Predict the 3D structure of the following.
Amino acid sequence: MVEEGQLAPDFALPDEAGHTVRLSDFRGKTVVLYFYPKDNTPGCTTEACEFRDDYALFGKRDVAILGVSPDSTASHARFATKYGLPFPLLADPDRAVAKAYGVWKERSAYGKLFWGIERTTVVIDPSGRIRRIFRRVRPRGHSAEVLEALSA
């Protein structure tokens, strides 16, 4: 599991268009790396659309937004197009990056245990260090919460 202050694990994942995106490509820039469970579900849609709506505010702070889920690049492409998402959605189907960041966890719903993504956002500073981790994120209002943390 990653901790604040440590170097963020680098990765290379395909985005919704199939292009490889590396965390190291963003060195020199703050990155908001958010992990979400599944495209086109209510909470994930709310979270993505709030980041979309605040995208210009993040841009004014020279902050890149990257979304990561186990969904396929095709699923990401449909999701991004449907909601006009202006930032990359990265496909992590083998969950390697989710595991490296400690967000692939045993969860429970309706009395059943299963493995899945624990909705988490990691803010990475320009030097590649983890500045802040938001765990067990509630989608509504989260983008504003991240913006506020970036202002502090």
